[in-house]
Amino acid sequence: MDTRQHWDRVYETKAPTDVSWFSPHLETSLGIIRRVAPNRSMSIIDVGGGESTLVDDLLAEGYCNVAVMDISGTAIGHCKKRLGKLADKVTWIVADITKAEIPVHSYDVWHDRAVFHFLTEPADRLEYVRRVTSTVKPGGHVIIGAFGPEGPSKCSGLDVMRYDVDSLHAEFGGRFRLMESSKELHQTPFGTTQQFLYCYCILE
Ligand SMILES: C[S@@+](CC[C@H](N)C(=O)[O-])C[C@H]1O[C@@H](n2cnc3c(N)ncnc32)[C@H](O)[C@@H]1O
Fold first, then answer.
1. 8 A C-beta contact, residue 142 and residue 136
2. Does the predicted TM-score (pTM) go above 0.90?
3. What sections of 61-182 are H helices per DSSP?
4. What is the per-residue pLDDT for 1?
5. Integer Cα distance of 31 and 15 in angstroms
6. Is 7 in the pocket of ligand 1 (CB under 6 A)?
7. Dihedral through CA 145, CA 146, CA 148, CA 151, nearest 10?
8. Among 6, 7, 80, 194, who pairs with 87 as Cys (CB 3.0-4.6 Å)?
9. Is the Cβ atom of 145 under 6 angstroms away from ligand 1?
């Protein structure tokens, strides 16, 4: 089964609240986005957004230039249905982030919660970083939430990477100026916790 089939199967067979990464609201992500993007017309892409409610919350706060990308058309379809008419305000992209063609300098903010850590092949990580570097406007904001050093070694049945601040920053390189980092203990719907590491960088 390839990556797209895997994720489509997940979103076809599980309710949004029945996946370990579910959170009613991505409060940490929202908190960072509010601070780095005070202007509601700033363009934001949520990479691997899945069925998360980040897009709902961004729209509710007045952000009017939001895109959601995911490899799973099923997840994007469910999000559109949930949002109803509001879905027309969002740019939806079904694509693999390691292969997607995204216009150069098209976003002020790049957000990724729980996607980069699935890239276990160095070549895929290089493709990802190439895309962030070309897609985000110079001086733009990059927010990555990945499993921390004490995070799980698998998620959704797939192997994942775990990162501390230095190893995550090293994947992105010197053009990414590290502004802040924080750890979060995500409470899964199953009563367990997962350690996440958030890094926020400015692309120079
Ligand atoms: C663990 S979920 C996180 C979803 C969402 N970001 C959240 O925090 O609720 C990982 C998401 O990444 C998507 N994904 C996995 N590999 C991807 C890739 N190569 N390109 C784009 N999306 C991908 C999956 O479809 C899934 O929605």
1. yes
2. yes
3. 73-83, 122-135, 165-172
4. 76
5. 26
6. yes
7. 120
8. 80
9. no
